[in-house]
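Field reference: "sequence" (input) and "structure" (output). Example, Iron-sulfur cluster assembly protein:
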Amino acid sequence: MSLTGKTIIIERDVQTILVPSGQVLELKAGTPVRVTQALGDNFSVEVFGQLVMIGGENRDALGLESNEAAYAFLQDSSLGVEEKAIRQIKTCYDPELPVNVYDLGLIYHIDVLESSMHIAMTLTSPTCGMGPFIVEEVKRKLHMIPGVDQVKIELVFDPPWDKTRLSQTAKLALNIF
């Protein structure tokens, strides 16, 4: 069942992130919100004309149960750490776009060395207010991979991101041909 377009009443007080500024905003229990995007672990919702993001760890505030089955692949020993990393990054979405950060072309490099991982990534703009959240979301997801103890994310802006970095999947989702 798609949640997009559905109005939900917040069941408990919850901290959200105002999009695109990245400011923290608390919503009180009983507040009605309209879901605009439910991708990955997070939910973009409209509340009183503002777009806010509710993290997946707060899905119960929306009356939803946990989605642990979505991460079953992390226990699959036939998958390498880099493949698991890519799958995890593909669960991180820009709250304003229906495209994950991997297909947006924001990941420049993944380097795995034993129990540590180094990621070189960028943002669509150096002034992106959601940048710190997106970086922390990627880091949190990579820490979920068994055996990964350290994750370093290097935010780079050279070369600058442009539309040529979009995957075919992203181009289709954004109607860019």
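Residues 131-143 form the longest helix (13 residues).
The mean pLDDT is 92.
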